[in-house]
Amino acid sequence: MLMPFAHISDTHLDCPGSSDFIKRLHREVRDPLENLTCCLQELAARKVAFVLHTGDMVHEGDAGDYAILRRLFDKYLPGVPVIAAMGNHDHRAAFREGFLGIPSPGDEDFTQEVVLDGLRILVLDSAKSGLIGSVSDAQVDWLEERLASPAPRGTFLMMHHPTVCEHPAMALEVSPEFSSLVENSDIHAIFTGHTHSNYNGFFAGKPLYTADSLAFGMLYIQSEVIYTSRSSYNLCWLDEQGRVTTHNQLLYPEVQVLQRKSIAQMIQGLPR
Fold first, then answer.
1. Which of 1, 28, 184, 251 has the most neighbouring CB atoms within 10 Å?
2. Is the pLDDT of residue 74 over 60?
3. What is the per-residue DSSP string for 206-250?
4. Helix, strand, coil in percent for the chain, rounding step 5
5. How large is the average pLDDT for residues 102-123?
6. CATH number for the domain formed by residue range(s) 3-267
7. pLDDT score for 272
8. 21-43 pLDDT, tens per residue?
9. Which H/E stretch holds residue 112?
């Protein structure tokens, strides 16, 4: 029996409107909040079993933004598990307080293990300052402990930064130990975000799925990055053999070019 689920990423909510770039999106195209609401309405109609959010939930927000995000999920997908990873725009303490309802003054890595109908979902925290991601040795040890025993329906691994992507400035720094651990495990698939573009690949012999952004798209052409109004998510199915099928769902057919930057400018940070 197929298990339907959704993979969304990079929603970049900025509810107070503090970001000039998000204000421009709202003024000229659509507010990322509107995009997310449209997506959740579609997912409610499709009756997904769970949602994976691979980071950059808010743009530069506080606990209030995460609380709004939580209320949106509760409104449109009541009772549906939402498993989230930290992105480079996220704030761990604010996420724990606003989204999870667990006040925490610390900034320790956010890792999580969730089991749904025998499917194990492991969440790593690859977020750090800048665009390149990394996973600490402590997280690799944590992952090794959990992968020591296989799960009844196998394992999904999720994090913000992809291990394979179009530009190395956006990738996850990986060690040989991490690669070997993933390769010799019951991991069925790896889910990531960060690049604001949708593509599939392989890492350590495992399928890797990178989701588009629900806020704005990014195209990488030679030494230039082009920011667009593209917004989409992935509708996915898991079969009994652990195989994943994904369908990219574009929210709106019209796509506008919003901004152009050199790769060097992009490395200095996403638009504010």
1. 251
2. yes
3. EEEEEPPPSS-EEEEETTEEEEE---EEEEEEE-TTS-EEEEEEE
4. 25, 30, 45
5. 92
6. 3.60.21.10
7. 41
8. 777 776 777 888 999 999 999 99
9. strand 112-116
